[in-house]
């Protein structure tokens, strides 16, 4: 930077000398040359900066609020600028924040607009609270006590303007909350505005809009109706009234559909319970059912038809190989042999020990023993025998190769005996 300044200064001096020679000496080569004009002194700030590194220069600039990249709340200049925002009367400051909020709102910067409106509210609401407290005290106090706080004398016209501005700020902030989907905050701001002016149509409209958004239909309708009582030709309110009617019909229709569905589910549940009882099938729940997605005991094909048959989620267990197959709907009229037709051969059975003719099947009894299940016997005969129970809506059947059945049954009994001890 210093080199560039020096070069520019030298060029300026040289140009000045040439101009002076031409003017004063003319074409006389014998004339004496005029002394060069000195360069102007550099600004003090430039002189200071020229002795700094880039980092030091940036740090110096960052001390000024104009060039700050991060706001330093302890900086005196920043404090001074903040104080400027609150210079003037409450009304002037509130109006200033309202105008800034309006500018942000026009640019759809809802959050920023909300903050500006909120600052205006903070200025005016405190004083309004004091006024309300004084009015309340005046109602309940019949005499002036020596310790009574001296009432602040205010200009009635100024008070009216402040209250009108506070009302506008509440309504405007409610509009921001509505855009930001802060529906509860919207209704609260509208309530504050209506406390100041019960006939504020905008507050009634925005309150109704927010209530409708959370399906508080009756309250939304009440706010909208009150607004139309004040301004029956208001287009926005009339449109909102139509939306409320439409949403009310949708909600009522959904309630009816939900009620009908619940009634149907309850009927199907009672019918299923009656079907199990009629077949002497015992069921039990542990509170920790296995994850079977949507599989469950059901009446098929129509769960609401008493003539339908029962179907059970069933787990085929291969205990010697720690494998299993899940059958989502094992009908009460079907036998194991019918399902073995598509289950066998098993992909992991390298020895070929599992086939419909080469296996024995067992089910655990209620007493903790084992009951043999015939492969051609319908499932209903097994479950309705009174000796077994269906736990957590899942039927479990053990499948063991015939050659290893005796050893497996013996091992089962020994394990059960050891657990019993």
Automatic annotation (TrEMBL):
- Quick one: where's region Disordered? 1-42, 134-159
Which CDD domains does UniProt cross-reference here? CTWD_TTC4
- SUPFAM superfamilies in alphabetical order: TPR-like
An example Gene Ontology CC term for this record: cytosol
| Keywords per UniProt | Repeat, TPR repeat
A Gene Ontology biological process in which this protein takes part is: protein folding
Where is there biased composition of kind Acidic residues?
Answer: 148-157
Q: Which GO terms label this protein's molecular function in UniProt? A: Hsp70 protein binding; Hsp90 protein binding
| A matching Pfam family | Wheel
Q: Which SMART domains match?
A: TPR
Q: Which InterPro entries match?
A: Csn1/TTC4_wheel, TPR-like_helical_dom_sf, TPR_rpt
Ranges annotated as biased composition (Low complexity): 1-16
Query: Which family would the database say this protein is a member of?
Result: Belongs to the TTC4 family.
**What is the name of this protein?**
Cns1/TTC4 wheel domain-containing protein
Q: Which organism is it from?
A: Apodospora peruviana
């Amino acid at each position: 930077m210093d080199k560039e300044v020096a070069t520019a200064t030298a060029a300026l001096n040289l140009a000045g000398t040439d101009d002076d020679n031409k003017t004063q000496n003319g074409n006389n080569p014998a004339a004496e040359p005029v002394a060069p004009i000195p360069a102007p002194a550099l600004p003090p700030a430039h002189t200071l900066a020229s002795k700094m590194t880039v980092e030091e220069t940036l740090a110096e600039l960052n001390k000024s609020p104009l060039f700050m990249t991060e706001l330093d709340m302890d900086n005196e200049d920043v404090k001074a600028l903040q104080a400027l925002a609150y210079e003037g009367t409450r009304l002037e400051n509130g109006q200033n924040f309202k105008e800034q909020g309006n500018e942000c709102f026009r640019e759809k910067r809802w959050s920023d607009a909300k903050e500006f409106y909120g600052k205006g509210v903070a200025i005016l609401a405190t004083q309004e609270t004091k006024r309300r407290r004084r009015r309340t005290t005046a109602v309940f106090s019949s005499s002036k006590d020596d310790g009574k706080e001296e009432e602040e004398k205010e200009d009635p016209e100024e008070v009216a303007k402040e209250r009108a501005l506070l009302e506008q700020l509440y309504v405007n902030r409610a509009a921001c909350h509505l855009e930001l989907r802060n529906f509860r905050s919207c209704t609260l701001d509208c309530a504050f505005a209506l406390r100041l002016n019960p006939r504020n149509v905008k507050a009634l409209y925005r309150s109704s809009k927010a209530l409708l958004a959370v399906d508080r239909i009756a309250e939304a309708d009440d706010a909208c109706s009150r607004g139309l009582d004040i301004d029956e030709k208001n287009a926005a309110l009339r449109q909102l009234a139509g939306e409320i009617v439409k949403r009310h019909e949708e909600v009522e229709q959904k309630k009816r559909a939900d009620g009908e569905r619940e009634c149907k589910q309850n009927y199907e549940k009672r019918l299923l319970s009656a079907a199990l009882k009629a077949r002497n099938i015992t069921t039990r729940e542990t509170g920790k059912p296995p994850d079977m997605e949507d599989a469950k005991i059901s009446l098929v094909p129509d769960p609401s038809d008493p003539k339908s048959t029962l179907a059970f989620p069933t787990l085929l267990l291969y205990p010697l190989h720690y494998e299993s197959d899940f059958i989502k709907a094992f009908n009460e009229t079907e036998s194991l042999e019918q399902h073995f037709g598509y289950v066998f051969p098993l992909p992991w059975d390298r020895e070929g020990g599992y086939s419909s003719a080469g296996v024995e099947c067992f089910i655990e009894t209620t007493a903790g023993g084992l009951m043999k299940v015939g492969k051609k016997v319908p499932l209903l005969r097994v479950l309705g025998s009174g000796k077994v129970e269906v736990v957590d809506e899942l039927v479990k059947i053990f499948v063991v190769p015939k050659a290893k059945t005796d050893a497996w049954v013996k091992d089962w009994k020994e394990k059960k005996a050891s657990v019993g001890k």
